[in-house]
Design goal:
- InterPro entries: Macro_dom-like.
- The protein has a 4-stranded mixed sheet, sandwiched between helices.
- The protein is of the alpha/beta class and 238 residues long.
- The chain has one domain: Leucine Aminopeptidase, subunit E, domain 1 (3-Layer(aba) Sandwich), CATH 3.40.220.
- It has helices at residues 17-23, 53-61, 71-84, 104-107, 133-153, 165-174, 196-212, 223-236; strands spanning 34-38, 94-97, 114-117, 181-183.
- It contains 8 helices and 4 strands.
Length: 238
């Protein structure tokens, strides 16, 4: 069984937009290596309407000297255009380094350097029918953070357990910083119709399963897989 370290801690906050806004001037000010997560409908070559307050808070906080409130949106969309051809499917995660002018301690007062995009819908709509949406999105986020931090540390390893120099060089070349904290809203809550209870349980369950790890060889009918499915099914009717 390959277990993952519980460090760094990943602090997940699902809260009202007002509390998210206030969080910028409190918690974020005391921590380095922050990653902010944006859960929304995102098409790379389509204007993002900044009607949701949390989206607007992020756009203004990382607008920099630009007079355009869509500066952050355009930056993220460019990455999604390259990575996903303009459409990141629901449940995926894309880590987007912030523009140099607003990244890290020199660019913002919280030291935030990365934005995570975890779409939950193609456009604002009810997605409560997608029973595993939150779990899948949270799992994708954890995997991307793990990969990111391995590259930042130069700790990537190949199938034989040898240090992967390519990962090390990539991290050094990009000046990649570790992600130590995550501030996030709920996934699929609000307009999406996913209950706060289901969202919270699936987020926690994804973290639990991620840290537990899996055997090197897994079969779909193994006891471990069945147990995980039972755990997930128990969160669906909440």
């Amino acid at each position: 069984m390959t277990r993952r370290s519980a460090s760094p801690s990943r602090a997940c906050f699902w809260m009202s937009p007002t509390r998210c806004a206030s969080l910028h001037s409190t918690t974020c000010a005391r921590a380095a290596g922050w990653l902010l997560l944006l859960s929304c409908a995102y098409r790379a070559y389509r204007s993002l309407t900044l009607l949701r307050r949390f989206d607007l808070v992020l756009s203004r906080a990382f607008q920099g000297r630009s007079a355009d409130v869509y500066a952050l949106t355009d930056h993220v969309q460019a990455t999604l255009g390259t990575r996903w051809g303009g459409f990141a499917p629901a449940g995926t995660c894309t880590l987007v380094p912030l523009p140099a002018g607003v990244s890290g301690r020199g660019g913002n007062k919280w030291g935030t350097h990365t934005l995570a995009v975890v779409p939950t819908m193609k456009e604002p709509e009810w997605v409560g029918w997608n029973r595993e949406l939150v779990y899948n999105g949270m799992w994708s986020l954890l995997c991307e953070i793990g990969r990111w931090n391995e590259e930042a540390e130069g700790a990537g390893r190949d199938a034989g357990g040898r240090q992967c120099l390519e990962a090390k060089r990539e991290g050094e070349k990009n000046g990649q910083e570790r992600i130590e904290r995550v501030v996030m809203t709920g996934l699929g809550t609000g307009t999406g119709g996913v209950s706060a209870a289901r969202c919270g349980r699936q987020m926690v369950l994804a973290v639990k399963h991620y840290l537990q790890g899996l055997p090197e060889k897994v079969r779909w009918d193994s006891a471990e897989e069945k147990r995980r499915m039972q755990d997930l099914n128990a969160t669906i009717d909440v």
